Amino acid sequence: MAFRYWCSGERPDCTEGMTELPDAALSALRANHIGGVILFANNLTGIDQTRRLTERIKSAAQGSPVQLLVGVDQEGGNVFRLPRTLSTPFSGNMALGAAFEGTKRDQLAFDQGRVLAAEMAAAGFNVNFAPVVDVNSNPLNPVINVRAFGDDAATVGRLGNSMAEGMKSEGMIATFKHYPGHGDTETDSHYGLPVVKKTRREAYAVDLAPYRDAIAAGRAPEMIMTAHIQYPALDNSLIRTRTGEQMIPPATMSRVIQHDILRGEFGFGGVTVSDALDMKGIADFFEPDDAVIKVFQADVDIALMPVEFRTASGAKRLSVLVDRAAAAVDAGLIDRAAAAVDAGLIDRAALDRSVRRIVAMKLRHGMGHPKPLPSASVIGSPDHRELEKHIAHLSVTALLNRNGVLPLKAEGKRIFIMTPWGEQAEAMRRRFDEHGYRSVKMGKLASMTWSDQKRAIDEADIVVLGTLSTGMSPVERNGDPDAGISRVTAFAGLERQPFTSSGSLVFNVEEDAPSSVLAMRAAGPWEMQRMRYAMEYAKNQNKVIVHVSMRSPYDVVNFDDISDATLATYAYYGYENGWRGQSLPAAVDAMLGYSPLSGKLPVAIYELRPDGSPGALRYSRGFGLRY
Questions:
Q1: What is the structure's pLDDT at 510?
Q2: Pick from 5, 23, 55, 31: nearest CA to 335
Q3: Burial letters for 469-502: b for 16+ Cβ neighbours within 10 Å, e otherwise?
Q4: Which residues contact 245 (CB under 8 A, 6 or more apart)?
Q5: Position with higher pLDDT, 265 vs 514
Q6: pLDDT at residue 499, as a whole number
Q7: Which residue among 134, 275, 278, 301 is the active-site one?
Q8: How confident is the model at residue 481 (pLDDT cuts 50, 70, 90)?
Q9: Is 614 helix (H, G, I), strand (E, B) or coil?
Q10: ∠ Cα 613 617 619 (to 5°)
């Protein structure tokens, strides 16, 4: 279950984060014998508060022979739930992949997993829905992207195994996701149902490989999370939706994918858990009770977030639904699932096997009785922060350095930094200041008019521009910024999706970004086009231009024809009431030559065709400059 939001009174659509477990929610957990809870950033506002919340959740299992699973999506990078300024958020999987490509050190992944798990355990969690082992083979992928270690299946599997073992060393249950592989999609399953068009041979060579190889090597994770994707090459059978139409089953509901391949062919004996069942990839096609029944029929062990309630009265949705107008009582989700077992729609023996797998996993991890929490002093400790900085520095990748402009010879030079978020420019400005560079000005893209931008560029000698893209994003070349942006081709990616505070969103603006991002998204996804205009103007004024790609490295092809230098960081958090990430200060260190460059691309980058699709190879995997 999730309790992301909670409100007093009858406001079923409220969006107030639940930071203390109400009596009604505690009673619902106890009365319905719920086996676990997942928390989100809405629930976690401080370390002491989080520890109190997780302890109260665990009290729901008081007297039970097994305790609750208390999980969270703590991937690092842009999917991170503990408060960033108080913990160790790391730069994310693709940054780790870049650091690995430059060093070939598996230990980095092990250590990052160990630190993530140690801090989670001290906050009261025992399950991490990580690491992501999707192979990001599609540059247009809007939802996996930098959450992947890279686009090479063997490397993804190697780093995923090492990170999971690091988590296991701290007693944390790790979860490979999203099976059978979300890396070759162009749709975010939070908003729709993606289709993977790979052949069966390609599926086994790429998407399935990290799972198959880990299981075969005896390094299977404790848990595997399913993906809400259609994969016709693996299962092209048909199931019926709530409207009576037939469709290829999402992998989460495919018995061929979950039982025949994963358990039968690969021999996985651990626990499987669905991705959130309130995501549109499921919720748009199936009623909650039907979704749960189909998940269990596919041989998935745990249904994650099958039904949501945000008020005390809503708790009845679990076991009893009351139609006040008709004065009728209807069975709730759990009772309907039980009725499906009695009717033979769900195999009772298979359900028993799921229970045994879950209980055995809990007992292996000491959940037969409550345990005191480890000391909170490890959370955000100096040693942990030092590892974060180390990996961030190793990950920064130089892709372009015309005429040897890097390292910058910036003594006495005027520097202007512009980024989509204010915290990004602030992070770089602070690091320049720490190195003694005082003539540094900064601006946030959405807060500056075109005239303001030109004036700031005119007054600078060096212009640093940061971009924040989820993928390949065509922009107009040599356009007229004063003429507006109506002729610009909108780029594909998560930024195109309208913001919503409902549903189970991995990238929830409320969780991951400053409130100012709401205004930026309302204005439209034109950040890259505006940055292109600014870069063209700076080029015409003979300024030194440094482009910092702060998220998807695929976007560099939009700017490398005019930038003098290009750095990829794969991470975009900066400084706002404390340090929220270390990649941007690491980029400044690289610009100035204070740290050696060792990062190499963990993905291949292609040119863009006019329609925005991938063209010829521009930068190969493993590419990275030195100076």
A1: 41
A2: 31
A3: bbbbbbbeeebebeeebeebeebbbbbebeeeee
A4: none
A5: 265
A6: 29
A7: 275
A8: low
A9: strand
A10: 115
Q: Please spell the DSSP secondary structure of 500-535, one letter per residue.
A: -SSS--SS-HHHHS-THHHHHHHH-S-HHHHHHHHH
Strand partners, 321: 330
Tell me: pLDDT of 11 over 80.
no
Give dist(CA 351, CA 355) in Å, integer: 6
Query: What's the confidence (pLDDT) of residue 491?
Result: 34
Q: Which residues contact 368 (CB under 8 A, 6 or more apart)?
A: 65, 66, 67, 362
Average pLDDT, the chain: 89
Residue 325 has pLDDT above 90, yes or no: no
- Look-up: residue for tokens 């090597």? 217
**DSSP H/E element including 156:** helix 153-168
Per the annotation, the verdict on 213 as an active-site residue is no
Distance, CA of 327 to CA of 344 (rounded, Å) = 30
pTM, entire model: 0.91
Q: Which long-range contacts (CB under 8 A, 24 or more apart) does 347-350 make?
A: 347/297, 350/296, 350/299
Residue type, 139: P
> What CA–CA distance (Å, rounded) separates 180 from 178?
6
> Cα-flanking dihedrals φ and ψ of residue 245, to 5°?
-75, 160
Q: Determine if the peptide bond prior to 365 is cis (ω within 30°).
A: no
Give the tens place of pLDDT for each residue, 577-606.
Answer: 999 999 999 999 999 999 989 999 999 999
